[in-house]
Write a structure and sequence with these properties.
The protein is mainly alpha-helical. It has a single domain, classed as Farnesyl Diphosphate Synthase (Orthogonal Bundle). This is Polyprenyl synthetase family protein.
Length: 283
């Protein structure tokens, strides 16, 4: 675990440094509340591992760490808005930003996070483009969810790729870009990550149906209460059947990874493990 923790620590250290520079102090307090309240850091870890799997050195190269932090800030910004839409009181076991500070300050904090993120991506136009495209997909997914609920499994999967898979894809693409990988390799890592993201979303749906609030760190049963799409209900699946759908996406992700990674490495091993982990995680 020391190997993985060193890379996570690199992200955490850089995240702290970026947030320390936020002005004014009131905004700094809000963005720190959102970004430092925990979280699995799956997306930034994905950026770091992909960089290494593509031949880069994320511990020595500031670009990889900056892109990883940028991806996490974009993700955190989207969570602030999700919690407002869902009227959720908790996030990662802590008070949601809109409850702690009010709706207006929470929205400003979300905007501040995006601004800091794109400052980090601005070092490379390819990274900026990858994340911009992901944000377009994310926005389309959020809008679709509000006005046109998916009616079958195919529509649900398209929504999951936009809502969750797109930012996972951008996280991996940014890692490969930081390693100066060729476009084919960038695309292959993106395919791997998008599949992982969809599996992650499906597992989220299952946990919302089966976990308890204390262990999950956020309210459960919320999808049904807010009439949000869940593969369990959209496709009328049991939790076990839904988990199998997640497993299918995980298996496809691993196939894409084998295409992307030209050589075996510890980073590639951990990327395989990540594809497995998202299917069995309990938080």
């Amino acid at each position: 675990m020391e190997y993985l923790e060193r890379r996570r620590a690199r992200v955490e250290d850089r995240l702290e440094t970026v947030l320390d520079g936020v002005e004014p102090p009131a905004l700094a307090e809000q963005v720190r509340h959102v970004s430092l309240s925990g979280g699995k850091r799956v997306r930034p870890t994905l950026t770091m591992l992909t960089c290494e799997a593509a031949g880069g050195d994320p511990l020595a190269d500031d670009t990889a760490a900056d892109f990883a932090v940028g991806v996490e800030l974009v993700h955190n910004a989207s969570l602030v808005i999700d919690d407002i839409i869902d009227e959720a009181d908790l996030r990662r076991g802590e008070t949601a930003a809109h409850v702690a500070y009010g709706h207006g300050p929470a929205i400003i904090a979300s905007d501040g996070l995006l601004g800091e993120a794109f400052h980090l991506f601005s070092a490379d136009e390819r990274a900026t483009q990858a994340v911009s495209e992901a944000m377009v997909e994310l926005g389309m997914g959020e809008a679709t969810e509000l006005v046109a609920m998916p009616e079958d499994e195919a529509e649900y999967m398209a929504l999951a790729r936009r809502k969750t898979g797109a930012l996972f894809r951008a996280a991996a693409e940014c890692g490969a870009i930081a390693a100066d990988a060729d476009p084919y390799t960038v695309e292959a890592f993106g395919e791997y990550a998008e599949r992982v993201g969809v599996a992650f979303q499906i597992r989220d749906d299952v946990l919302d149906e089966t976990a308890d609030t204390q262990s999950l760190g956020k309210p459960t049963g919320h999808d049904a209460q807010m009439e949000r799409p869940s593969i369990v209900r959209v496709a009328d699946l049991s939790p076990g059947e839904a988990n199998q759908r997640a497993r299918d996406e995980s298996d496809a992700a691993i196939e894409a990874l084998e295409t992307a990674a030209a050589r075996d490495s510890r980073a590639v091993d951990y990327l395989r493990d990540l594809a497995e982990f998202v299917v069995v995680r309990e938080r």
